[in-house]
């Protein structure tokens, strides 16, 4: 059996981890104040903030920002702010309010990944991808020497054998620090090449898909689209080992005790609040608290699809914008703003996760979140995607 895992050589910073690690770019999309605080905290220090385009600022000088991202990556390489580890993986222990979640940083083969409906593959998307969200992400990869992705993939290990075995090893600690903005604590341990090969074999067991996206569907889809774009001009030999063919991910056990599913709520903006609430509640049974709606839909993909269809139909007919919000408190705060309505959804059931994907299925876009907003992945590790 050919593995869809590639053991990478991973980049980490040479120090200053507290300012280096920032949260995934698709978080706090309606809260520019969060990103302003991060920018102030980071200052002029080396940081992955300089390598990403937060979605809160999409549409604001994107081309200029992307050009700066590429320049910042080359500068970090030239000035020695990042160091390349020997070939291997990283075991991550992330402490949050939900407990300690363990993940394994490695690279997966994008040739083994698909978002296509009805297609069974070793690595599977879990949610429908919104095409309009890909161009900026793909553009950020063009001309970039490195990637610092935030994709998290689930694997299935009910007894937790893989992580338990790694915790018994005498692994070298390579970082240990508090994450900014109350993101919790994270510790990383280097898994050397020989042990990493064994781990790769253990991870790829059972039926396909072996891995399914837990978080970062659009990040992975953009990496795949970029690879499909450049491979057309490569020879067969170049295609086999080109660094852009393999993208960095964090593999997390679905049955980890600290894996908790949360809903991704909907925020409808720039609408007549009374008119929208009347429209929505006439079509779907709801509990209403001010400008917050709690629809009575099942805790699964079908329930999310039902709510989305009503929201999208209203916006098509009457105007408005739809945003996707992590966290109950964040939704409550944003729903108080003028012209905004929050639609609070329920979390999906963990046990049904891979069942939904059987036969090449997907959840509707933005159905679930693993952890609360501040528990999302922070950028620490990176990898080359270019020979330049």
Structural class: alpha+beta
Largest sheet: 10 strands, mixed
What is the global morphology?
globular
Count every beta strand, where a strand is a DSSP E run of 2 or more residues: 20
Q: From the alpha-carbon coordinates, what is the Rg to the nearest angstrom?
A: 21 Å
What is the helix tally?
12
Q: Estimate the strand proportion.
A: 25-35%
Structure report:
The protein has 2 domains: 5-259 and 372-384, no CATH class; 263-346, no CATH class. It is built from 12 helices and 20 strands. It starts with a strand and ends with a strand. α4 packs across α7 (217-231). By secondary structure, the protein is an alpha+beta fold. Helices cover 31% and strands 25% of the residues. The longest helix has 18 residues, at 301-318.
Describe the structure using short key phrases.
about 25% strand; ten-stranded mixed beta sheet; alpha+beta; about 30% helix; 2 domains
In short:
The chain is α+β, with helices and mostly antiparallel strands. The protein has twelve helices and 20 strands. It starts with a strand and ends with a strand.
How are the elements arranged and paired?
Layout: E1 5-6, E2 11-13, H1 17-20, H2 32-42, H3 62-78, E3 82-84, E4 88-96, E5 99-109, E6 113-114, E7 123-124, H4 135-141, E8 146-147, E9 152-155, H5 161-167, E10 172-178, E11 185-192, H6 193-203, E12 211-215, H7 217-231, H8 236-241, E13 246-253, E14 261-269, H9 273-283, E15 286-289, E16 292-295, H10 301-318, E17 321-326, H11 328-335, E18 341-343, H12 353-357, E19 368-370, E20 383-384
Parallel strand pairs: 6-7, 7-12, 9-13, 16-18
Antiparallel strand pairs: 1-5, 2-3, 4-5, 4-11, 5-13, 8-20, 9-12, 10-11, 14-17, 14-18, 14-19, 15-16
Helix pairs in contact: 4-7
């Amino acid at each position: 059996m050919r593995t869809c895992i590639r053991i990478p050589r991973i980049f980490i910073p040479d120090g200053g981890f507290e300012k280096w690690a920032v949260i995934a770019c698709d978080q706090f999309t309606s809260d520019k104040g969060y990103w302003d605080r991060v920018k102030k905290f980071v200052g002029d220090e080396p940081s992955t903030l300089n390598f990403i385009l937060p979605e809160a600022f999409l549409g604001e000088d994107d081309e200029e920002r992307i050009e700066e991202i590429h320049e910042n990556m080359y500068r970090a390489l030239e000035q020695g702010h990042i160091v390349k580890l020997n070939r291997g993986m990283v075991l991550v222990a992330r402490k949050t309010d939900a407990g300690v979640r363990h993940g394994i940083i490695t690279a997966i083969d994008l040739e083994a990944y698909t978002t296509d409906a009805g297609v069974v593959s070793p690595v599977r998307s879990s949610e429908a991808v919104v095409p309009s969200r890909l161009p900026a992400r793909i553009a950020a990869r063009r001309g970039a020497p490195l990637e610092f992705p935030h994709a998290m993939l689930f694997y299935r290990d009910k007894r937790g054998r893989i992580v338990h075995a790694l915790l018994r090893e005498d692994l070298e600690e390579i970082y240990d620090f508090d994450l900014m903005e109350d993101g919790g604590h994270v510790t990383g341990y280097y898994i050397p090449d020989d042990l990493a090969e064994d781990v790769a074999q253990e991870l790829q067991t059972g039926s396909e898909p072996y891995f399914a996206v837990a978080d970062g569907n659009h990040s992975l889809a953009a990496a795949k689209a970029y690879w499909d774009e450049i491979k057309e001009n490569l020879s067969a030999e170049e295609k086999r080992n080109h660094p852009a063919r393999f993208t960095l991910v964090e593999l997390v056990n679905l049955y980890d005790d600290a894996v908790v599913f949360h809903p991704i709520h909907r925020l409808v903006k720039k609408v007549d609040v009374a008119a929208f609430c009347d429209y929505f509640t006439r079509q779907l049974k709801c509990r209403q608290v001010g400008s917050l709606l709690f629809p009575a839909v099942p805790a699964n993909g079908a329930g999310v699809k039902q709510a989305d269809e009503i929201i999208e139909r209203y916006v098509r007919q009457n105007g408005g914008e739809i945003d996707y919000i992590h966290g109950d408190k964040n939704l409550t705060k944003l729903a108080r703003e003028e012209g905004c309505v929050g639609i609070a959804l329920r979390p999906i059931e963990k046990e049904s996760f891979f069942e939904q994907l059987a036969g090449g299925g997907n959840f509707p876009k933005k159905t679930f979140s693993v952890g609360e907003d501040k528990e999302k992945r922070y950028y620490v590790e990176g990898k080359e995607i270019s020979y330049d």
